[in-house]
């Protein structure tokens, strides 16, 4: 959880099912340190919104129309390299986890896992985002 007065973790939801996005948004609204800043149902929306909104975390389903969430994750590494991607999917097997890691995802959560697992993965991903976002600043200060 963020310290009092800290900015909330900005999240972009990417899932082709509107009901899933709505449910996640309602659940995340109960967490004072989380803020859903956008929702996308396909690759084009996901890439466009990620570029415009620069979320700390992109919560990405694998099963999307046209292009898989894994392929979008690879694209996001160049489009918004400071956004951490958390894969959130029904497909929970070693091969899928390996593909997600290879694509640049920082975490993988199966949809059957607990909400606490998902929330913890998002918060850990946000820490990764902070390191990426401010890593150069920290190195510059240390080098002085």
Task: Note the topology.
Elements: E1 9-14, H1 18-28, E2 34-40, H2 43-53, E3 57-60, H3 69-79, E4 84-89, H4 94-103, E5 107-110, H5 115-143
Helix pairs in contact: 2-3, 3-4
Please, could you describe this protein's structure?
This protein starts with 8 loop residues before the first strand and ends with a helix. With 144 residues, it is an alpha/beta fold. The chain has one domain: 3-Layer(aba) Sandwich (Rossmann fold). It contains five helices and five strands; from the N terminus they run βαβαβαβαβα. 50% of the residues lie in helices and 19% in strands. Strands 2-1-3-4-5 form a five-stranded parallel sheet, sandwiched between helices.
Oligomeric form of this entry? single chain
Read across the widest sheet, the strand sequence of neighbours is: 2-1-3-4-5
CATH class: Alpha Beta
How many β-strands, per DSSP? 5
- Please give the alpha-carbon distance between the first and last residues: 31 Å
CATH superfamily: Response regulator
The global form is globular
Biggest pleated sheet: 5 strands, parallel
Q: Give me the strand/helix succession.
A: EHEHEHEHEH
Average pLDDT over all residues:
89
Coarse structural class: alpha/beta
Assess the beta-strand content as a share of residues.
15-25%
How many structural domains?
Answer: 1
Stretches where pLDDT falls below 50 for ≥5 residues? 136-144
Proportion of helical residues: 40-55%
CATH architecture: 3-Layer(aba) Sandwich
Radius of gyration: 15 Å
Classify the fold: give the CATH topology.
Rossmann fold
Continuous helix count: 5
């Amino acid at each position: 959880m963020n310290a009092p007065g800290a900015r909330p973790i900005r999240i972009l939801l990417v899932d082709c099912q509107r009901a899933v996005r709505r449910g996640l948004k309602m659940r995340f609204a109960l967490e004072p340190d989380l803020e859903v800043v956008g929702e996308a149902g396909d690759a084009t929306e996901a890439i466009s919104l990620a570029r415009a909104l620069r979320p700390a975390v992109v919560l990405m389903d694998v099963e999307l129309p046209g292009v898989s969430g894994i392929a979008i994750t690879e694209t996001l590494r160049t489009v918004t390299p400071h956004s951490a991607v958390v894969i959130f999917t029904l497909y929970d097997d070693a091969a899928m986890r390996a593909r997600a890691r290879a694509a640049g995802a920082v975490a993988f959560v199966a949809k059957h896992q607990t909400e606490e697992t998902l929330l913890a993965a998002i918060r850990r991903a946000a820490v990764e985002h902070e390191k990426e976002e401010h890593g150069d600043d920290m190195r510059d200060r240390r080098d002085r």
